[in-house]
Amino acid sequence: MLPNRMNLTKQTEEHLKKLKQFTGISPNVSARIAFFRSIESGFKCTNSATVKLDGALVLDKVTWLGETQLVTELMMKMHYPNLQGRELMAAWAAHVEDGISAIRNYRSITKLSTSI
């Protein structure tokens, strides 16, 4: 399963922070939305070992995933049955990065909610 402390890439964190400024949605909630958008799009992380998790926002798993924790971990295990620990976290971070690209430019929560 995913480690208890998790972080993202610096670039992804910046996108999450900008989205918070425009919409008011906290980074952990927008990361959940981005993750599931990525899963729905069919994105597959091919090399999680090369993902550099250099972000400063290190939160515990419960904060990042909230009520979606069980579903997120099951989806990750279904898509990546051979990954564990940091590699699985890197794959999760890659999904968040992929998904945030689709929602990072919304300037209001109304427009974001209609696109979801």
Short note summarizing the structure:
With 116 residues, this protein is mainly alpha-helical. It has six helices and two strands.
Highlighted features:
116 residues; mainly alpha; Arc Repressor Mutant; 6 helices; 2 strands; 61% helix
Could you please describe the fold and organization of this structure?
It is built from 6 helices and 2 strands; from the N terminus they run βααβαααα. Helix 1 crosses helix 5. A two-stranded antiparallel ribbon has the order 1-2. It has helices at residues 10-23, 27-41, 61-65, 69-79, 85-103, 109-115; strands at residues 5-6, 59-60. The protein is 61% helix and 3% strand. The protein is globular. The mean pLDDT is 88. It has one domain: Orthogonal Bundle (Arc Repressor Mutant). With 116 residues, the chain is mainly alpha-helical.
Element layout with pairings:
Elements: E1 5-6, H1 10-23, H2 27-41, E2 59-60, H3 61-65, H4 69-79, H5 85-103, H6 109-115
Antiparallel strand pairs: 1-2
Number of strands: 2
Ends: how far apart? 27 Å
Tell me the strand order in the biggest sheet: 1-2
- If classified by CATH, what would the architecture be? Orthogonal Bundle
For the report, how would you describe the main beta sheet? 2 strands, antiparallel
CATH classification, class level: Mainly Alpha
Strand proportion, as a percent range, falls in: under 5%
Assign the CATH topology: Arc Repressor Mutant
Order of helices and strands: EHHEHHHH
Number of alpha- plus pi-helical segments = 6
Number of self-contained structural domains: 1
* Secondary structure: helix percent: 55-70%
* Structural Rg: 13 Å
**Arithmetic mean of pLDDT:** 88
The stretches of 5 or more residues where confidence is low (pLDDT under 50) are none
| Molecular shape | globular
User: CATH homologous superfamily name?
Assistant: DNA sulphur modification protein DndE
Structural class: mainly alpha
